[in-house]
Model the fold of this input.
Amino acid sequence: MDNNSQVCTEEDEPIDGLFVIGNVQGDFFGKDYPVHCPGISHSRCLVFGQLVGEALAKDTVLTALIA
Done:
């Protein structure tokens, strides 16, 4: 995954039109908490889903919305 939530190839090239949202983005707390934190993935899905949707609607990149 890159900074725009796009799935990348093994060569780290983004795949056009393929995005990841929620748990498939990776574990945000994998290094800090040794347990799964239920419910956190729901808000990640909502937030990143909205950001990716807005970026696609505006034909821009996700990092432009976060900056």
